[in-house]
Design goal:
Layout: H1 5-18, E1 30-34, E2 37-40, E3 45-48, H2 51-54, H3 63-75, H4 86-97, E4 105-109, H5 112-127, E5 131-135, H6 144-148, H7 153-156, E6 166-169, H8 174-180, E7 185-190, E8 193-194, E9 200-201, H9 204-217, E10 220-224, H10 239-242, E11 248-251, E12 262-266, H11 268-273, H12 287-303, H13 305-321, E13 328-334, E14 337-342, H14 347-357, E15 359-360, E16 362-363, E17 368-371, H15 379-393
Parallel strand pairs: 3-15, 5-6, 5-7, 7-10, 10-11
Antiparallel strand pairs: 1-2, 2-3, 4-12, 8-9, 11-12, 13-14, 14-17, 16-17
Helix pairs in contact: 3-12, 4-12, 13-15, 14-15
Bound molecules: pyridoxal-5'-phosphate.
Length: 395
């Protein structure tokens, strides 16, 4: 156990020095979390609106998840999918019980990008087609398949050639969708609210059109709810706002209550199209993540945390809109997935929120400050966030 400040400084140095440098790291060493608060090595407290990029919906070190992880760790840590184990069946049953009946087959993975990789492969296997349709500003992950349907050129272009063909259409453009989906299309992949792309909710007509057009033309609809799932937008899953059900739903981030866990959940016929052994993962479905997932889903059901997001999100956005700053272009979002778009770069303000107010936020594109607080956050804490944003924007 490292407890002295000196030890901690050395470890911060080690993380910085021995890392590949792919991430720009904050000058912080966070050692503990509870609910929507985290503490650094010097004991300073922060309100966490990064929320682990949307992982910490149920609060940091959620006691139910911690207890389940402890119990499962003592019992059985690893077991591959060819060898059944109770935690896996329990996770499948629990997850499927909160989804529409047609989404009843689960492929468990360890991350968001893997959930989308699985979805893309299942879609090709089911349709026998190759092409994917994705949205401009869409984000699906960093591995080669998911990256292929991720739009941001600076993420994609250094790694060409990627998987193709992929056609990108403007988000919320029904006409473009009509034109893009054809007899070669295996799937359309969309986020119900684009996260990384700037916190942009879909208009209902767009997602409904995506549902109808894919069904008519024999393509699948993949909804990526990796960021929007698990109560974030004010419903259990964002598709519930839109009255549609996808053929494949991808989940990760908050699904494991803080433990790495993702899933592609699909219709039975889609699952059955994959040849035996056509996809696989060693860690996917491991008992530790499964137990964490069961505890997370049960906590979400017991607390109905999505209702908190539905109540606090609009209030928070309204309060942000009241800030009298000409620097603000727009405040938008759904539930507690909130973006504040500035007319200038967001990074300096994110830094000031951290340094001057001990509030952690993240970017979504160059000009958007994104807020993904744990859904358990106290209203008073959100009020403090509003005050801090006011202080940094209204000089
Ligand atoms: N899809 C969406 C909508 C995401 O927001 C993310 C991550 O930010 C991913 C996929 C990729 O998830 P992961 O980073 O776990 O691979």
């Amino acid at each position: 156990m490292h407890t002295t400040l000196e030890d901690w400084r050395a470890l911060l140095e080690a993380e910085r020095e021995l890392d590949t440098g792919v991430y720009t790291k904050h000058d912080l060493l966070l050692v503990r979390g509870e609910g929507a608060r985290v503490w650094d090595a010097e004991g300073n407290e922060y309100i966490d609106c990064v929320g682990g990029y949307g992982v910490a919906n149920l609060g940091h070190s959620n006691p139910g998840v911690v207890e389940a992880v402890k119990r499962q760790a003592e019992l059985l840590l690893s077991m591959p999918q060819t060898l059944p184990t109770p935690a896996r069946g329990e996770f499948y049953r629990t997850l499927v019980s909160v989804l529409p009946p047609e989404l009843n087959r689960v492929f468990p993975v360890n991350s968001g990008t893997e959930a989308n990789e699985a979805a893309l492969k299942f879609a090709r296997a089911y349709t026998g087609r190759k092409k994917f349709v994705a949205a401009m500003r869409g984000f699906s992950g960093r591995t080669m398949g998911s990256l292929s349907v991720t739009w941001e050129p600076k993420y994609r272009e250094p790694f060409l050639p990627l998987v193709g063909p992929v056609e990108f259409i403007p988000y919320n453009d029904v006409e473009a969708l009509e034109k893009a989906v054809d007899g070669e299309t295996a799937a359309v992949i969309l986020e119900p609210v684009q996260g990384e792309g700037g916190v942009r909710p879909a208009i209902p007509e767009f997602l409904r059109a995506a549902r109808e057009i894919t069904r008519e033309r024999g393509a699948l609809l993949i909804l990526d709810e990796i960021q929007t799932g698990m109560g974030r937008t004010g419903r259990r899953f964002a598709f519930e706002h839109y009255g549609i059900v996808p053929d494949i739903l991808t989940l990760a981030k908050a699904l494991g209550g803080g433990v790495p866990l993702g899933a592609a959940v699909m219709r039975k016929e889609v699952a059955e199209a994959m040849p035996k052994g056509g996809h696989g993962t060693t860690f996917g479905g491991n008992p530790l993540a499964m137990a964490a997932g069961v505890a997370a889903l049960r906590y979400l059901e017991r607390t109905q945390l999505w209702e908190r997001a539905a109540e606090l999100g609009p209030w928070f956005m309204e309060e942000l809109r009241k800030i009298p700053s000409p620097k603000i272009r727009e405040v938008r979002g759904l539930g507690l997935m909130v973006g504040l778009e500035l007319k200038e770069k967001a990074a300096p303000y994110i830094e000031r929120l951290e340094k001057e107010h001990r509030i952690l936020t993240l970017q979504a594109g160059p000009t958007v400050i994104r807020f993904l607080p744990p859904l358990v956050i106290a209203k008073e804490d959100l009020a403090r966030v509003v005050e801090a944003v006011r202080a940094v924007l209204v000089a």
